[in-house]
Write a structure and sequence with these properties.
Family: Belongs to the TonB-dependent receptor family.
Keywords: Cell outer membrane, Hydrolase, Ion transport, Iron, Iron transport, Membrane, Receptor, Signal, TonB box, Transmembrane, Transmembrane beta strand, Transport
Distance between the termini: 30 Å
CATH class of the largest domain: Mainly Beta
Subcellular location: Cell outer membrane
Radius of gyration: 27 Å
CATH architecture of the largest domain: Beta Barrel
Number of helices: 4
Protein name: TonB-dependent receptor
CATH topology of the largest domain: Maltoporin, Chain A
Helix content: under 10%
GO molecular function: hydrolase activity
Strand content: over 45%
Length: 794
Amino acid sequence: MKLKKAVIGIFLLVTIPMFSQSINGVVTATDGTPIPNAHIDILNSDQGTITNTKGVFVLPLREKLFRIVISKLGYTTRTMTIIPDQISQGVEIVLEKTTTSLEEIVITAQKREQTIIETPLAVSSLSGKKVNEMRAWDFTTLNGVVPNYTYHELGVGFQQVQVIRGVQVFSENPAVATYIDGVNSIDILANGVQLSEIERIEVLRGPQGTLFGRNAMGGVVNVLTKKPTNKTSGFAEVNLGNRNTQRYVVGIKTPIIKNTLFLGVDGMYTSKHGFLRNDTSQTLLQNTAIDGHRVGDEESFYTNLFLKWLPGTKFSATFNIKQQMDISDASAFFTTVSDEKIALANPDKIYLNRIGEHKRNLVNTSLALKFYGSDFTVSSISAYQRVGLEFKDIESGGFYASFDGKKIGAPLDPQQVFSQEIRIDSKENGSPIQYTMGVYGFTQQAFSPASNFATEDPVNLPGGYIIMKNEQDNFGIAAFGQASYSMTEKIKMTGGIRYDFEKRKSAYNTLGDLLFVGETIIENNPLVKKEGEFSAISPKVALSYIPGKEMTLYASYTKGFRAGGINGLNVPEIDKETYDPEYSDNYEVGYKARFVNKKIYVSATSFLINWKDLQFSNLVAPLTFAIENVGDARSMGIELEASAIPVKGWQLDVSLGYNDTEYQDFLLRRIDPVTFVEIEEQLEGNRLSNAPKTTLFIASQYTFPINRKNLTLRGEFRNIGTYYTDIQNTLEQENYSLFNARLSYESNELDIAVWGQNLFDKRYIAYGTPDTSFGRSTNMAAPRSIGITCRYKF
């Protein structure tokens, strides 16, 4: 070992004079062995490099002070502050194996790269390695792993509800914002993305309106995929499982011009059979031709392309385009079972008169430009999102199909979103003041599948269709700023504010206004056009106490909001055509720390949320629902996350959430369908729907080293406490537990894993009716899944 260190020292002394404008370093393991192909990246910069075969790297001399992050698969990630004036003989960096210490987690929760410990908010971070270990192919895997987070899917991934701390949504306008590589999924229809080549998933709990704006009232799910670097690498992966599950992924990342131009591309195909079998014995038509037909089959095609250009140290440009197409000719879109007792007794059955079809096409395109000044960085993020949808023979109280004005089942006019953010961030140059400020704007052409469809009316309109249309044209602009001031070495104050303005336009018809008979459109009444304007101010303040580098205590207040909107129906004059935004006040106290030579990490949070002016559908006239601001709610609880390495090779992860919720002054209005008398029901004191009182996750894995290869055995336990899916608290999902396991073999070139999820085949409700005034319906969660994964790397 002494000889190795001597050789490294001589190499550094020889090479330093050759790079007078650079900083040299070497990365080694704890035994002194050089680590090749380790990544050294400058935080909040596009600049970085990799080590050579001797573990040596060279970084250009950029600032008087900057931080770097050093990472290598199999070793713990480490951050380090570089002060060039204090470095005369290079930098020596030692990385420990992941089997001996916990990695240092770097996140972008405040739109700049920081360690998770120094960030004064509740955030869960899952590295790409952990995502693979959990076999996280979609957001359902986050249930329980993130404290007080649940994901409820309505048959397909692009119709779902994400809930954080009980804050959720009952429309297409999400309450939990989802970002994929900087692109905001403004509408729920843009969710349900495949998770592939993940760098990191961050889940920010609690309102994030100051930096993220509208619809981040419950929190933010921030997904970052892997980018190309100076090292050429590629892979091919095959996944096979029961229910004919197939998942094939290939990708390559490479420099086209070293240090200047980089390309990354990966593609994926997935397919699976649905677990539901159709039973027509209880249906109206009793079409025996589809008796026993599978329901829930899906295919997905996904591509992700990055092109990154670094013409120098002052400028960078990154272009990214993602596309995902989801197809099914045995669709579970909006399909439910009308009685939860029947569903639980027969969890693999569905009762349909027809088998539906759907196709969704999602495209996300972005261009990120950055200019690096001496004391600040200017960022521009331009994005375009397009969502196309078509469906037919969807049975949900009738037979529904999309309609393009000429053909039943044809694609709807696509949703389109253009957005632009320009941001200025200060650099960490030793100043006690750090800031982020910017402007954001978007335009959106949107529709809701629930109010854009053709439905058959065989009684009143034989051979014809009633057409419902709701076209939306939205515009929004915001200005925001956040700054932190280090009052002392240990005390930091953070404050921020955001102003959002939004203008919405809606054109819609009501029942019977538009008919389609044969090949003729009959317009009885023209579209009704309405406009509405909404604005909100979202402040934030936080105080942090940092007694040491590995510990932070903080207290914060944040205000969140969810945008208002326009009702897509002509409602009685006494009711508003528009509904106001929702607001929330979030109070939070947190503690984060690492102990015992980085072998234990703990994060604890307590919170109180006062949620005001909830938006919910009231029946304001016969067959006429309108969204109104119906009341308030309260949510309070605690969250705990902990990781530990008790002995070499053994890692434990625990997440615990406790959430006590209730509606306050929540008035539900209904019109009796027989007497037409208005009925009011006060739900004050009821628990929030889809808000389990407890969530628990425990993972244990042990890695056995075998001739420089690893054999890892992993087990997971998660428990979701009892909750109600409806606001009336009558449709109950009892406490349930799931067990997962994985056995993997990893080498430099080949990884093989066998896995099982929900091993004891627990059947439970994945989604239930949020309002049981006029009936109950449910979707069942998938049964046991088992399979194998093989991945070849080069």
